[in-house]
């Protein structure tokens, strides 16, 4: 299927695949220059869904099994239908095939799984591949200036006590995370490290915190 891969985005080319999580339709390669999300999709209306972001190197994704396990766990925490991993992996392969064929190099692949449209109640999902923003490479090379900030909830909340807190789920609702980033940038800083009780380091708004010991 010959589809354009360039968009007006400064990020350049990308691949987009509709997963069709429910029903019998196979994953479908989409034209990335056209809209793929309906206005009544709960991903946009409520942020009601989950996602995973996978690193693409040499035409393949890294840590597929770990991301798959976390994706399944996140979906279960939101009471979404269990993802058909075979279907999501097939959609991933299709997106990567198109990405590599169009000359794409290292990038970022994202799974997005929504509760679906308000009018149908059927889950929706997409796989996208895009280049990493230039700022990511720059930050890796030059480092970043960060502030610490309270996460806003306790990690000691159990799933039984407050399952609606969705602690540990990667949901599409990132408004608070982006607000934290904007706050940091308004104070001439680059990023945030969220901390919990006892100043325990947790994560960044859109990043993972890794500690290197004895260095």
From TrEMBL:
Biological processes annotated in GO = carboxylic acid biosynthetic process
Q: Does the keyword Signal apply?
A: no
Q: Which GO terms describe its cellular component?
A: cytosol
| GO MF annotations in UniProt | lyase activity
Q: Which InterPro entries match?
A: Aminotrans_IV, Aminotransferase-like, BCAT-like_C, BCAT-like_N, Class-IV_PLP-Dep_Aminotrnsfr
This protein's record includes keyword Protein biosynthesis: no
Q: What is this protein called?
A: Aminodeoxychorismate lyase
Q: Where does this protein come from, organism-wise? A: Corynebacterium variabile
């Amino acid at each position: 299927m010959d589809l354009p891969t360039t968009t007006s985005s400064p990020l350049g080319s990308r691949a987009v695949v509709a997963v069709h999580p429910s029903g019998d339709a196979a994953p479908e390669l989409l034209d990335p220059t056209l809209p793929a999300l309906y206005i009544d999709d709960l991903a946009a209306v409520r942020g009601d869904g989950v996602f995973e972001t996978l690193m693409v190197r040499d035409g393949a994704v890294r840590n597929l099994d770990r991301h798959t396990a976390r994706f399944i766990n996140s979906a279960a925490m939101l009471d979404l239908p269990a993802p058909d991993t075979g279907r999501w992996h097939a959609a991933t392969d299709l997106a990567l095939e198109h990405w590599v064929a169009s000359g794409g190099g290292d990038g970022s692949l994202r799974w997005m799984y929504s509760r679906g449209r308000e009018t149908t109640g059927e889950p929706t999902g997409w796989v996208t591949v895009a280049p990493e923003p230039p700022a990511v490479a720059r930050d890796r090379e030059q480092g970043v200036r960060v502030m610490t900030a309270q996460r806003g909830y306790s990690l000691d909340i159990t799933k039984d006590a407050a399952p609606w807190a969705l602690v540990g789920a990667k949901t599409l609702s990132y408004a608070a995370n982006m607000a934290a980033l904007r706050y940091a940038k308004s104070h001439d800083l680059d990023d945030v490290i969220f901390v919990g009780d006892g100043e325990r380091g947790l994560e960044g708004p859109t990043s993972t915190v890794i500690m290197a010991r004895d260095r």
